[in-house]
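Quick illustration, no need to memorize.
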Amino acid sequence: MIKIVSGFSIPIGPTIALVNLCNQLNGKEHHCILYGPDNWHMDKCKSAKINEFHPESGDIIIVHNIALFSVTELYHLQNKIEELRKKHISNIFKCIFSKHMHWLRKHDDIKIVLSCQENDLFPIRRLNYTMFDKIHYVHSWQVNYHKLKHDHFVCPNFCNPLRASEHKPGKVAGIIGSIRQENQTDLSIEKALWDGMETVILYGYLKDPVYYYKKIVPLVKKYPGKIKYAGFIDDKQTVYDSISDVYCTVCKPWSFVKKECLMTSTRYHGPDISAMPEESLTNHQIVNIWEKELNL
């Protein structure tokens, strides 16, 4: 069985990517389950909570955003469990997953793949990455960024089918992505308003409330009635139908936002990201790459 395990399953880009991967693999009749600590993914694909995860002989385990370092960690878990439960949920999940790692390394018929959906937010070099059979990157830019000498493959995430929006509003900007310091949402808002946008809609999961109240709320007060928070919207067609422009500040070569803007006739204002060959792959070609790399 293919088991995808993630340190979070909230409605942000990496979770959506894993949901799509799970659905695509099941669509090709490969038994796949996504395990996550949150509830959002539970009705999006064949899924389960992390406490239901158990590795079994013959499993292919795709790991995302779980800081695994060494199997020796399991010998100290009992003394640290109370402390770790007060920290971020990914640390909690690390404890649950680490309990199985000693067992996993005893069985050569278990394959473990690390899926890298981020860069600085999840520095692979700080992990014991040699414990993974392969590393999956979603963009070749990540290979150059991490500079690891380890077996890997590059395969983009699946792209949702979108069409050109027939009726676009005028001067309505959208900022798409989770709201957190790293995405510099506040700078995107100000850029949109400086360009004369009449309304700015925030489409994204509120991942960093402290940043939101420190940086975004003052802008809401400064520009009354112009900034609206819509939160995460699962239907991307609805999102792009509601806006004329998209603004972003941070360069993320693996992001589909620029591509989705082209598909929906939405004006894109952001870093100029050079297209790479893997970005032209169809969903059918992408799932074929996964089948090849996982030896399915």
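Confidence is low (pLDDT under 50) at residues 69-86.
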